[in-house]
Write a structure and sequence with these properties.
Elements: H1 3-22, H2 27-31, H3 41-60, H4 65-68, H5 71-75, H6 90-94, H7 101-119, E1 130-132, E2 139-140, H8 141-168
Antiparallel strand pairs: 1-2
Helix pairs in contact: 1-7, 1-8, 3-7, 3-8
């Protein structure tokens, strides 16, 4: 197994978790919050997809799927196009309401496809390239990719937990 195979598999697992958490739910179910400060499935999936889109586009030197492929107006959220959800308040979390699970998973699938396309161009030597010097130590491409995978799996798992709450009520 190569680095590309490993990364492709890991991003595929994020995609599977997203579909398992959001698939088939109504807009109301996607917006459910266990309490007034909890994250909804809609916010969690939107956020993890936005972070992946943002970070992969930055690493690849390309535009984000969110803006380049017209996803931002389809969602119609009350945020700047550059917003990823990082540091959102409870009110901002509540503002992430989507029309359908298909919209959420469709955007994630588009981000996933772009991610796998980019990862497929990488060689082992690329992974040591510094992509963010704002940290000490500077962040390499390998660390950034693993961070995105970890974030995606954590938030996807949270969304799956919330799905369980929704389906039990």
């Amino acid at each position: 197994m190569t680095s590309v195979d490993l990364l492709t598999d890991a991003f595929g697992r994020v995609r599977e978790v997203v579909h398992g958490a959001a698939g088939g739910l109504t807009a109301e179910q996607l917006a459910f919050r266990a309490d007034g400060d909890a994250n909804s499935i809609a916010w969690l999936v939107w956020h993890l997809s936005r972070v992946q889109d943002d970070h992969i586009a930055d690493a690849a030197g390309t535009s984000q799927v969110w803006t380049a492929d017209g996803w931002e107006p389809r969602f119609g959220l009350p945020f700047e196009a550059s917003e990823t959800g990082y540091g959102h308040s409870s009110d901002e979390v509540a503002a992430v309401r989507v029309a359908s699970a298909d919209l959420l998973t469709g955007y994630h699938d588009a981000v996933h496809d772009r991610t796998v396309e980019y990862v497929g161009t990488l060689t082992g030597g690329d992974l040591g390239r510094v992509v963010d010097e704002a940290w000490d130590p500077p962040v390499t491409l390998a660390v950034r990719l693993i961070s995105v995978i970890s974030d995606g799996l954590q938030h996807g798992g949270q969304a799956a937990f919330v799905r369980g709450l929704v389906l039990r009520s």
